[in-house]
Design goal:
The structure holds 2 protein chains of 2 kinds. Helix content of chain A is 38%, strand content 9%. By secondary structure, chain A is mainly α. A two-stranded antiparallel sheet of chain A has the order 2-3. The longest helix of chain A has 19 residues. Classes of the chains: A mainly alpha, B alpha+beta.
């Protein structure tokens, strides 16, 4: 594992807050270790790939997959809301949104 | 510190992000209809809702419109670009990320020429235009004013989620000095006009089709490094944009004068007070962890397609104004008045229908505008260009003079028919009977020997004194030009 791929508990805490996940001190520490190991393993790809291999975002050599601008089948609001934990006035009901306007 | 003082003391720098909703038939990544209104959560598919297993497919029309916008702004169209996930948690984004573009926008590096009200041209540098999707709509329930504060819960409608957007981002706009606020508003107006000319969006500000985020920062002088900026979100009218920029310049100057720091943050504009208030701090919430969207393959717009779209671009508003200014030979001021009154198209169509430009301008900005104003309407709502051209044609044929034409216009506006029909129905046509006119002319000459002497002595304007009695005798239906010819013929003959 290289030094650059080491993840600190502070970074995990930041990610946890972005993900709205509450985490204790122990969890942050243990996750930092786990994530560092995972990153280190993934980083080994760099040892195999030479300079002639460009970074790849998509594994299949496919481009320009588009559809014509034609309206298709839609859900009814009943179908849309079927799996919602709560609904009101045909809308999804979510808990109070905190933190910003 | 007042705005006027702030602008003397500091050099403002602005930056603007404009979102435009595209007028496609369907959403950007799924086939749900892109329509305004409709029952909540009816214009949705599993993809709009981000349901597990659903996959996005790019709307070709959305890409076409984005390319057109890029070309109209003078941008380079990328040979290859990708979509990216912009991750954040907010209930109006059902997937917990917005599909957008990050470091590979479809269009980059262009510019927009913005004409200010007094004719000054400001070139606004455009950094990029990229494709993304709109979010759903939250309604906050339980708060006194429908705001988040005090709300018990929120309701979400995903009809708008996935509607195609193009976001246009400027480079920092410098050198605007005391006209920063005006430049900001005029820039957005210019974009709005371009969207309409391209027919890629209805571009109605009041419906939120076009939304602007306005960045403002101040610095000591044009040589100094850029100051800390604030971003005022979702300012939705030209007037509000101008007010928001003015308020932020004054507010930031007050802080700096007091030795305090401007906090980098997003702010909200309040229509009622014209003020902005603190939203959230920029720092960590801005960590969107962009990464390439694995569910959408890269886009490589064929060069032939791009060139085809370039060739199909309509004449843009600024080009059109320049061309018509040359063709019509109006003064800059006359042209600006027409543009500001929203009469450019009407006059152009009237000229196309056969009227002379000067006549078309005179009627639209004069009598038509006056009648429209009385009814609190826009001139184009009360008559058509074809009708105005028809009216002018009757004048040119000598069948109406200006006074009678105004009567005919009143009839046309009242829905009595086309100009020629109203003229007949109201019996307003100028009598072609030169016999009656000749009698009136002769009587006028006989009754005013002193005036006749003056005309003989070369004082042509004295003819006016004979017109009154002639018009009276013919009940206003005499053709002034013909009467004048007759007078001269009789006096000099």
């Amino acid at each position: 594992m290289t030094e650059s791929s080491a993840i600190t508990p502070e970074q995990v805490e930041h990610l946890a807050s972005l993900s709205r996940i509450a985490m204790g001190e122990d969890e942050l520490k243990s996750l930092a270790g786990d994530l560092s190991t995972i990153l280190g393993n993934v980083a080994r790809v760099n040892e195999v790939a030479g300079d002639d291999v460009p970074a790849t975002s998509h594994p299949i050599p496919l481009t320009n997959v588009m559809r014509p601008d034609v309206v298709g089948e839609t859900l009814t609001s009943e179908q849309a809301l079927a799996s919602a934990p709560a609904a009101e006035d045909d809308k999804f009901l979510v808990p109070q949104i905190l933190g910003e306007e | 510190m007042k705005y006027e003082d702030a602008i003397k003391r500091y050099d403002p720098v602005i930056g603007i992000e404009v979102h435009v909703e595209l007028g496609t038939a369907t959403k950007m990544f799924d086939a749900a209809p892109n329509t305004f209104g409709g029952g909540p959560n009816t214009n949705v598919t599993p993809t709009s809702l981000g349901l597990p297993g659903s996959l996005p497919v790019v709307n070709e029309k959305g890409v076409e419109y984005a390319i057109k916008i890029g070309l109209a702004l003078g941008c380079e169209i990328a040979e290859t670009c990708r979509f990216a996930r912009k991750n954040y948690f907010y209930p109006d984004v059902p997937k917990d990320f917005q599909t957008s573009q990050s470091d590979e926008p479809i269009a980059s590096e262009g510019q927009v020429e913005v004409e200010l009200e007094d004719g000054t041209i400001v070139t606004v540098p455009v950094e990029r235009a990229h494709m993304e999707e709109d979010a759903g709509k939250n309604t906050h329930v339980g708060g006194a004013t429908g705001r988040i504060q005090g709300a018990d819960h929120s309701l979400v409608d995903y009809n708008r989620a996935g509607v195609p957007l193009v976001e246009i981002v400027t480079h920092p706009i410098t050198g605007t000095g005391d006209r920063a606020a005006e430049v900001a508003a005029s820039y957005v107006r210019t974009l709005r006009d371009i969207f309409r000319a391209l027919d890629v969006s209805e571009a109605r500000m009041e419906q939120g089709n076009v939304r602007a985020d306005v960045n403002v920062s101040l610095r000591e002088s044009p040589d100094a490094p850029l100051g800390t900026r604030t971003e005022t979100k979702n300012v939705n009218s030209f007037r509000s944009i101008e007010r928001a920029v003015r308020f932020e310049i004054a507010r930031q100057a007050t802080l700096l004068e007091a030795g305090e720091k401007v906090v980098q943050e997003t702010r909200h504009f309040h229509e009622e007070t014209g003020e902005t208030s603190s939203g959230r701090p920029k720092s960590d919430a801005d960590d969107y962890r962009y990464f390439p969207e694995p569910d959408l393959v890269p886009l490589q717009p064929a060069r032939a397609w791009v060139e085809e779209l370039r060739a199909s671009l309509p004449e843009l508003p600024a080009q059109k104004r320049r061309r018509l200014l040359g063709e019509w030979k109006f003064s800059d001021l006359e042209m600006r008045d027409i543009v500001n009154a929203g009469l450019l198209e009407a006059i152009e169509d009237t000229v196309t229908s056969g009227a002379k430009p000067a006549q078309a301008r005179k009627w639209w900005t004069g009598e038509v505008a006056r009648l429209a104003n009385q009814e609190d309407k826009h001139p184009t709502e009360i008559v058509t260009p074809v009708q105005v051209a028809g009216l002018i044609d009757l004048i040119d044929q000598g069948k109406l003079n200006d006074k009678l034409a105004k009567d005919v216009l009143t009839g046309v506006v009242a829905g009595e028919g086309e100009p020629a029909e109203v003229m007949k129905a109201r019996d307003l046509e100028i009598v072609e009977d030169t016999g009656a006119l000749e009698v009136a002319v002769e009587e006028a000459i006989a009754a005013n020997p002193d005036v006749v002497e003056k005309i003989k002595g070369g004082k042509m304007q004295a003819i006016g004194a004979l017109m009154g009695p002639i018009m009276k005798a013919t009940k206003g239906q005499a053709d002034a030009g013909k009467a004048k010819d007759l007078i001269l013929a009789k006096i000099n003959g």
